[in-house]
Amino acid sequence: MGPLSAVERFSTRLVPPPRRQRFWREVVAEAFPGMTAHAPEGIKAELARWSLGVVGLARARSERAQVSRVANEGEGRHLLLHLLHRGSMTMLHGDRSSTARIGDIVIADDRHPYAIDISQYNDCLILQVPVAMMGDDIAGRDWHGCLMPSTNPNVLFLAHVLHGLWSQRDQFADLDDDAGVLLADAARMLCRRSTLDRPAIQLPRSPVDYALEHLGNPDLGTALICQALDLSPRAVQKSFVRHVGLTPTAFITARRLERAASLLACDDGRTITDVAFEVGFNDSAFFTRCFRRRFGAAPSQWRSGTGSSLAS
Q: Under the GO molecular function aspect, what terms does this record hold (predicted)?
C-alpha cells in the first residue's frame, strides 16, 4: 500500500478578483470531472482535497454559488457524500430536490446529472467512494439525492470520523491508503443501516418543504400552500421568512430559476419553453424576463455558456 497523498489546497483569495471566476471553474472541473461552477466574478472560495487510495476526501468553502454536473459515463461509478458543516445546500436532481442543513448528509451518484445550489458561507466535507467498494447491496440501490438527517446516529458516527480525520490529517502522514478502505466501510455501514432502519415517523411538512416538492406546479403560491397544509396566509408568510428569509413568492421564483439554470446547463435537448414549463412557469416570455433579471443573461446565452454567472 502506498502512503496517503499530500493535501492539495486551492483558494481564490490568491487570485485577482477579475480572474477568480475562471480559476474556480477550472479547480472545480479538475477536482470533479464533468462539473461546472456557476459563480460571481469575485467569488471567495477554497477547496482542499486528499486522496486516500481510491477514496477521496475534500473540503469546500464557498460564498453563494451553484454547481452542475453531467452524468459520468466512464467505467468508475462513485457515490459522493456531502456532509454540511456550515450553511445549507439544495441538490436538484431531475424534478426533485433535497435540502441539507448543518450536520446532514446528502448523497450524489455521479452516474446521474445533478446541480447543487450552495448557500452563502457554505462549508462542506465531501467523501467520494467508488461504488465497487460498497458491496452489491449498496450498488443495486438508487442513492441519488438521498438525504440523511443529522439526527441519524449513523450519520453522527460518520461525521465524527470525517471531522476527526480531517482536523488531524497532518498527524496521519505515515498511514497508508487502507485508511480509505476504512472510510468506505463507514460509508457502507451508513447506507446499509439506512435500509434496515424503521421508517421515520412522518412529521408535518413545512411550507418551505411543500414548495420545494411542488415547484413544477404553476399554481404554486401562498394560497395553494395554505390549502394543502391547512395554514393561514400569515402562518405561511412567517414560516418562509423565518426559515429562508424570503416571502413565498420570492422563494418559489428563485428556486424555479435555479432549477431552470441547472437544466439549461445540462443541455439535454429540451427547448427553453419546455424548461420554463417544467419548472413551473406557464409563460415563456415572462420566464425569460425573470431569468435575465436573476442571472444577467438570457436562457439561450446561459445554455451556450456565453452568459453571466450566478449573482451572489
A: DNA-binding transcription factor activity; sequence-specific DNA binding
